[in-house]
Specification:
The complex is a heterodimer of chains A (275) and B (293). With 275 residues, chain A is an all-alpha fold. Chain A has one domain. Chain A is built from 13 helices and 2 strands; from the N terminus they run ααααβααααβααααα. Chain A has a two-stranded antiparallel ribbon. By secondary structure, chain B is mainly α. Chain B has a two-stranded antiparallel ribbon. The longest helix of chain B has 28 residues. The N and C termini of chain B lie far apart (43 Å). The chains are: A mainly alpha (275), B mainly alpha (293). At the A-B interface, α3, α4, α9 and α12 of A face α4, α10 and α12 of B.
């Protein structure tokens, strides 16, 4: 049991980071559950039907979900504002409906027979993604991302290709979600389209908001606490959506400027002057 | 075929009612109200209460109109009032959280299974033949109510003092407030009207299916967001035409036997519209001017 708790916590940490990476450019994605599904099904089909080793299937699945993200993200990221939210909600529904109705993916019955994920695989994945995010926070790319998020017009006037940077973040986020999905499927042995409901994507976003978005540790903390707490406190489990919802509303009300105000992560973590 | 198109128009008119609410809030206040879909969902349950308490089924419609509107004002108070200026995403997330709470509480009271509506049979099953196709009275009721609401909304926005204030705020909140318009009051009005329409749409859907269901917010209701984007963000005509268009398209795809894949129509159309014409079909909304990056 304790192993399962750790596993689901780890998956949620990866998903929370995948939301965080997209959020670094100021965009909110409600499709991380869908990209997780793509990664999960892609890797699962490769290993169970074609005998591809897991070590090959996982990176291939990451590439595939990243490619899907770039494909659908392009029309949305080309234009401003809330379009990406709409497109990602749409992607979540499309992926779920497609998985349920296409015979190749097993339909409503789902996909079974995957196995092979050990807990340390997930640990290694979290360490690797965490290390990459840490290196990112010290790199010049972080400053470009900050500029795009804080004021995209200024960033564009400085020669930053907005669409490219946003697509890069969106694709990277999808790759992380795909990684989580591939590991998830091969741990559970049996997955169904239900496992990737829109509520999964919504909850992951809420983990990130509750944890804070100032740096990569916020999403990690949010995902860990929010996954483990309901497992140990019974009342929280029964009232999960209400508790989460109220917690979000209260936190946002206590900080009216919003938790989404970033506090110059690159400046804090590398000692450089932020602006 | 014609029966399918009629069906599509009826579903489409309900899509349109929900989409109008989204587009009104977005067009006037530049905010995305995610709790809207759950007010729509709750409309059916509020109607259930009214029918069980009062006994006269059609009185549930005005009751739900008021309850929906009050819920809208509550959402505005909780999730939108304190987030001004640039905090669009914050407000959207807060309303999303309110929506989740509303689903959970509704499920705590009525359970997760659909709850049957007690409506007289002469509404839900009786009907007549028209040009060889069968028309059920509930279909006429839905079309009649949605058309009446849309016409009144049009008159409200274009002919009344309140409508003039709403248009002024949509154009520029700062300028409107300088001219002595109470922007907060207008905001409340907009939330009341948009959520009242959503509540009525939810009840109409329950009349048609015979059940009040806690799922419809995240399935049926969220499609209205896509319809808003298809019609043009903030454009009332776009929401109506987009809703009817998607309703008919969906009905026709079901007719051609693609099964549940017909559910994809609305999202695929939205992505295509974003590709070809990001400002939406009509492009008359307030977002036209900054739609391009």
């Amino acid at each position: 049991m304790i192993q399962d708790y750790l596993f689901f916590t780890g998956i949620n940490i990866l998903l929370a980071w995948s939301v965080y990476v997209v959020l670094l450019t100021g965009n909110l994605s409600f499709a991380q559950g869908a990209f997780m599904a793509i990664g999960c099904y892609a890797a699962g089909i490769m290993t169970t039907r074609y005998g591809v080793p897991l070590a090959v299937a996982v990176p291939a699945a990451m590439l595939l979900s990243s490619a899907a993200a770039v494909l659908v993200g392009f029309p949305a990221l080309r234009v401003r504002g809330i379009y990406l939210i709409l497109v990602t909600v749409g992607v979540t529904f499309c992926v779920r409906i497609a998985l349920e109705n296409v015979a190749y993916t097993g339909g409503v019955e789902g996909l079974k027979g995957m196995s092979g994920t050990r807990l340390w695989h997930l640990g290694a994945a979290i360490a690797a993604v965490g290390l990459l995010l840490f290196l990112l926070s010290r790199s010049p790319l972080q400053r470009i991302l900050d500029a795009v998020r804080e004021d995209d017009r200024v960033a564009a006037s400085l020669g930053v290709n907005l669409t490219y940077v946003k697509l890069l973040a969106f694709g990277a986020g999808a790759a992380i979600a795909g990684l989580a999905g591939a590991l998830y499927g091969h741990y559970l042995i049996f997955v169904r389209p239900d496992n990737f409901d829109i509520l999964v994507s919504i909850f992951v976003v809420l983990y990130v908001i509750l944890g804070g978005v100032n740096n990569m540790w916020g999403p990690l903390l949010g995902a860990t606490v929010m996954t483990l707490l309901p497992e140990f406190i019974r009342a929280l489990q029964d009232w999960r959506p209400t508790m989460f919802g109220v917690a979000i509303v209260v936190m946002l009300l206590l900080r009216p400027e919003g938790l989404l105000k970033f506090r110059q992560p690159s400046a804090r973590w590398s000692g450089h002057a932020g602006r | 075929m014609t029966a399918q198109i009629l069906n599509g128009l009826i579903v489409g008119s309900m899509y349109a009612l929900v989409a109008i609410g989204f587009t009104l809030v977005l067009g006037v206040l530049d905010r995305l109200n995610f709790a809207h879909t759950e007010v729509f969902m709750f409309g059916a349950f509020a109607g259930l209460v009214a029918i069980d308490a009062g006994g006269i089924w059609w009185l549930a419609l005005p009751f739900v109109f008021v309850v929906g509107g009050l819920f809208g004002m509550a959402v505005e108070f909780i999730s939108f009032r304190r987030f001004e200026g640039d905090a669009r995403i914050t407000a959207a997330l807060s309303s999303l959280a309110v929506g989740l709470v509303l689903i959970d509480l509704t499920q705590k009271v009525w359970g997760t299974e659909p709850v049957g509506m007690t409506i007289p049979g002469y509404v839900t099953t009786a009907g007549f033949e028209l040009f060889g196709m069968r028309v059920v009275y509930v279909q006429l009721l839905i079309l009649g109510v949605t058309l009446a609401l849309m016409a009144s909304l049009h008159l409200l926005v274009s002919r009344t003092r309140m409508g003039r204030n709403i248009r002024a705020v949509a154009d520029s909140p700062a300028a409107a407030s300088l001219l002595g318009i109470d922007v907060r009051r207008v905001t409340q009005d907009v939330f009341f009207v948009s959520s009242a329409l959503a509540g009525v749409a939810g009840l109409l859907l329950a009349f048609r299916t015979g059940f009040a269901n806690t799922d419809v917010g995240l399935t049926f209701g969220l499609k209205a967001i896509a319809i808003m984007a298809i019609g043009g963000m903030g454009d009332l005509r776009g929401a109506v035409v987009g809703g009817l268009l998607i309703g008919v398209l969906e009905a026709l795809t079901f007719q051609f036997g693609v099964g549940k894949l017909g559910e994809l129509v609305v999202w695929v159309t939205m992505i295509l519209v974003l590709f070809v014409r990001p400002e939406g079909l009509f492009g008359g909304g307030v977002h036209v001017k900054d739609v391009r990056a």
